[in-house]
Amino acid sequence: MTRNDKPRVLSDRLGVQVEAAEWSWIEKIPQPPAEVLQAAGNPRLRPARLPPLALAGTVLGKALWLPFLPLILLLIPLSKAQDAVMRALDSKEEKESRRANREAERRRDATIAEQGLDKVFDGNWQGDAGQFLLRWYTHSTHPQRLLVATPDGIALAAPPQRVSVGREKHMEVVARIPSAEASLVDPFSGEFATRMLLIRFRDGSWLRVDTEELRSDLHMHLLRQPLSDS
After folding, report:
1. Per-residue pLDDT, 81
2. Three-class SS state of 201
3. Contact 128, 201 (CB under 8 A)
4. Which residues, other chains included, contact 68 with Cβ-Cβ below 8 Å and sequence gap of 6+?
5. C-alpha angle 154/202/212, rounded to 5°?
6. What are the Cα distances from residue 39, in Å, to 34, 46, 67, 121, 126?
7. Residue 51, SS3?
């Protein structure tokens, strides 16, 4: 599937008009206060565990790598040494570019810390984002979501139950948020290449999601949209 074909194929698959989409996940949901959890009906706050057979396959797959571990550990420092030598041979322009990238990373990290974007949501459990977060794994016990921009809002697709393989095959729309309630936002407006996006609700609360791809198709789609006052 090419990038141009992706929205059309996903639209046919999910039954919604897809403008852009990317697989994503959220960080660990913090433990809400007991009264908040009880009022929400004690929802699930973690994804489901892997099925036993899938877990056994994962363990076996890792075990197959064990004989190669000493070689891998040997190659890591050699690779770092090679990188150091190559950096020393860089041109002036390349060194300036690398310094600029480091400075951009520092500014990005400082902005994330200042705005509290290192958290999974804004922290207000009574806000729309907090209430939606409480239902996250009620919608689906799978750890990832296909985050979808549609003409009338946001859709989230996933297998209803956790699967180890074939997430695209089993996925369906598990939640929809109309544009009147929330919008999808790149908090850096494309200034930094990140995986981060926000679902920003109309009450000002927000939920952070991270895409599998750095500066994904979804990020680029948002950059093409007209500026909004929301």
Report:
1. 64
2. strand
3. yes
4. none
5. 40
6. 9, 18, 51, 19, 11
7. coil
Residue ranges in the chain modelled with pLDDT below 50: 57, 230
User: What is the C-alpha separation between 228 and 82, in angstroms, rounded?
Assistant: 47
Rounded Cα–Cα distance for residues 223 and 190 (Å): 7
Q: How many CB atoms lie within 10 A of CB 63?
A: 9
What DSSP character marks residue 10?
H
Cα–Cα dist 126/145, whole Å: 23
Residue-level pLDDT at 230: 46
Angle among Cα 150, 155, 161 to the nearest 5 degrees reads: 150
Residue whose token pair is 């599998």: 212
8-state DSSP, 166: -
| 6 token code pair | 């992706």
pLDDT in tens, 96-114: 777 777 777 788 788 888 8
Tokens of 116: 């509290």
Q: How many CB atoms lie within 10 A of CB 116?
A: 12
Tens digits of residue pLDDT in 173-217:
999 999 999 999 999 988 888 899 999 999 999 999 999 998 899
d(CA 3, CA 22): 11
Both structure tokens of 171: 């996925």
Give the Cα separation of 71 and 200 in Å (integer): 46
Tokens of 67: 């004989």
Question: Token match 């600029």: residue?
Answer: 100
